[in-house]
Amino acid sequence: MADLTDTIKFLERQRDELLDQVNAIIRAIAALKGTDGSVRRTPSPYAPPVDRPAPSQRTNGRKRRQFVLSEEHKQKLLEGQRRAREARLTAGPSAVPDSTAHDAAPRLVRRDPTV
């Protein structure tokens, strides 16, 4: 337990030092704004916990950009799809894979090396 109490005291000292630094920054900002910087922002150790949104309500912080295609790009995509469809149709039925044309055994079956 001695190790834990030493660690807790060390962390509390660090917290107090950081709070002092934050308060100094607040006072400096207040002085630059021309207001009274006597207000200290130190959290009460008995303050209720901060309400955090449920994990399902949290946002990732990064939003995916919504991409919008230009009319020219849309037309090029449609033209490419049309050309691919025409190429498939003109190639005939030999270009279309036939489900009965392959080996009767499934592809991912381990074959016995003795056979």
Summary keywords:
single chain
**Percentage of residues in DSSP E strands:** under 5%
Task: Compute the CA-based radius of gyration.
Answer: 34 Å
Q: What spatial form do the alpha-carbon principal axes imply? A: elongated
Distance N to C terminus: 68 Å
- Largest beta-sheet characterization: none
The number of helical runs is 2
* Beta strands, count: 0
How much helical structure, as a percent, in the residues? 40-55%
Return the string of H and E elements. Answer: HH
Kindly state the mean pLDDT as a whole number?
76
Structural class: mainly alpha
Uncertain runs with pLDDT below 50, 5 residues or more? none
Task: Please explain how this structure is put together.
With 115 residues, this protein is mostly helical. The protein has a domain at 9-41. Helix content is 46%, strand content 0%. The protein has helices at 2-33, 71-91. The two termini are 68 Å apart.
How would you sum up this structure in a few lines?
The chain has helices at residues 2-33, 71-91. The chain has 115 residues and is an all-alpha fold. It has a domain at 9-41.
How are the SSEs placed, and which strands pair?
Layout lengths: L1 H32 L37 H21 L24
